[in-house]
Amino acid sequence: MPQLNPNPWFFIMLTSWLTYSLIIQPKILSLIATNPPTNKTSTTTKTTPWTWPWT
Predict the structure, then answer these.
(1) How many CB atoms lie within 10 A of CB 28?
(2) For a FRET experiment, which of 3, 9, 45, 49 has its CA 20 to 30 Å from that of 35?
(3) Which UniProt keywords apply (predicted)?
């Protein structure tokens, strides 16, 4: 079965992961987020109970 031969596919997988890890990932991580998360104060909403007409 030729698909069990890891000879060409292992090299392709290894080079693609090395390319991603060493070249692409640092470029992506160096970008600044346009909308950075901020600490928001949580507001509690006051709910009123529903008045049922048949009670």
Answers:
(1) 8
(2) 45
(3) ATP synthesis, CF(0), Hydrogen ion transport, Ion transport, Membrane, Mitochondrion, Transmembrane, Transmembrane helix, Transport
Task: State the first-to-last Cα distance of the chain, in angstroms, to the nearest integer.
Answer: 75
> What DSSP string runs through 3-46?
GG--HHHHHHHHHHHHHIIIIIHHHHHTSPPSS---PPPP-PPP
The total number of residues written for the chain in this structure: 55
At 18, which amino acid appears? Answer: L
Q: How far apart are CA 20 and CA 41, in angstroms?
A: 38
**Residue 26 phi/psi, 5° resolution?**
-65, -30
| pLDDT at position 55 | 63
The one-letter code for the residue type at 35 is: N
